[in-house]
Design brief:
It is built from 5 helices and 5 strands. The two termini are 20 Å apart. It is α/β, with parallel strands linked by helices. The chain has one domain: Alpha/beta knot.
Amino acid sequence: MSIVVTKIRVVAIGKMKEKFLREAMQEYEKRLVPFCKLELIELKDEGFEKESKRLEKYLGKGTFILDVDGKQLSSSEFAKFLKKQENLTFIIGGPDGIEKTIKKQASLISLSKMTFTHEMSRVFLLEQIYRAFMINSNRKYHR
């Protein structure tokens, strides 16, 4: 099966403050150029009520919220999952997470049972997306 994903949107609450994490994100952005159109959206960290209203427009088919209680996938499973998608939106909450009513409107996936900062989660997600494309392209990065 060929790689299907054409657009991946990552919506995240809050700014990337740490320079080293911003640099890591930029590296994965560059690496993903041949595989998909990547859109990174940062929303202001302004509390559940305002964030929820702003997140609503990103909900719909193909939207997944990163949450510690979400479904965990191995890298190989995530690669298979990516093969079946055309347009994806991943939502990453800020330091306080995401309001429950928003969580009920999308599928939840988890990077780990461990808790990571919202900034690190962005880097880990982009790395896993890149890894998935490498797996699906039969390239050596993932080994």
